[in-house]
From TrEMBL:
Molecular function via GO: uridine phosphorylase activity
Annotated source species: Paenibacillus silvestris
Organism phylogeny: Bacteria, Bacillati, Bacillota, Bacilli, Bacillales
Record protein name field: Uridine phosphorylase
Enzyme class, spelled out: transferase
UniProt superkingdom: Bacteria
Entries under InterPro entries matching the protein: Nucleoside_phosphorylase_d, Nucleoside_phosphorylase_sf
PANTHER family per the UniProt record, alphabetical: FI09636P-RELATED, URIDINE PHOSPHORYLASE
EC identifiers of the protein: 2.4.2.3
Length: 240
């Protein structure tokens, strides 16, 4: 079956997928795999397949924001993907997890506009516990700080006249904010597949992002390298 938006044949996909926002990060992830093939580059969705320790892995970029990412997640699941791991970046809420740290998301606050159109607001956005464990173990084997905990998924990146909800979620114990994990977790629950996510922290979220946001520092690049390594190793562990 040809997936109409990803422009990929479902027969070419593997049951394990790594997803990320940036098409260039998808390429960087794919370069770590053996026997890599690029399958398609349609809109923001760039798809590769390759192998790690003999396990076939699909890598796809989903772009920025939950609605576009949801299209990617839904088509991958329709195409037979059973385990999805998001490898992303996020803004930190706490000096305990400074930029350059990794966070494995156990659950996501649904501050996105998409999932309320799919399920009632009381429905939780939670990761699969086996995927969380595999990601946390694999990330802990890399050289740097890794924590697991609740993340926030928010549509707005730049602030308007409304206050961002960062302070209240920080006080409630959330570790970081990004833009797609709640969509991934809700869709995975709805469709009966496993999902997890790991994020590299690229700054502090409650600062004024327009002036200080710079995801292209060496510290962030190093953390992204670590999370890629962790996601690939987690999939190999999950396949054992
Ligand atoms: O680095 P990625 O995976 O794109 O994730 C984060 O970065 C983007 C914002 O710059 C949003 O997609 C957010 O979720
Ligand atoms: O959504 C995001 C992603 C990275 N960093 C942030 O501060 N926010």
């Amino acid at each position: 079956m040809k997936l109409s938006i990803l422009q990929v044949n479902s027969e070419d996909l593997s049951p394990y997928a790594i997803v990320c926002g940036d098409p260039f990060r998808a390429e960087a992830i794919a370069r770590k795999l053996d026997n890599v093939r690029e399958l398609a580059f349609s809109r923001e969705y760039r798809t590769f397949v390759g192998e790690a320790s003999g396990v076939a892995i699909t890598v796809v970029s989903h772009g920025v924001g939950s609605p576009g990412a949801a299209v990617c997640f839904e088509e991958l699941i329709k195409g037979g993907v059973k385990t999805l791991i998001r490898v992303g970046t996020a803004g930190s809420y706490s000096a305990d997890v400074p930029p350059g740290s990794l966070v494995v998301s156990t659950a996501a606050v649904r501050e996105d506009g998409l999932t309320r159109q799919l399920v009632p607001l009381g429905f939780p956005a939670v990761a699969d516990s086996d995927v969380v464990q595999a990601l946390f173990e694999a990330a802990s084997e890399t050289d740097g700080l890794v924590k697991k905990g609740i993340t926030v998924t928010l549509d707005a990146f730049f602030q308007g006249v409304e206050e961002f909800p960062h302070q209240k979620y920080k006080r409630a114990g959330a570790l970081a904010v990004e833009m797609e994990i709640s969509a991934l977790y809700v869709i995975a629950s709805l469709r009966g597949v496993r999902a997890g996510a790991i994020v590299a922290l690229d700054g502090y979220a409650d600062a004024d992002l327009r002036e200080v946001y710079d995801p292209h520092t060496d510290v962030v690049t190093g953390a992204v390298e670590r999370e890629i390594e962790a996601a690939i190793r987690a999939i190999v562990k999950l396949n054992q």
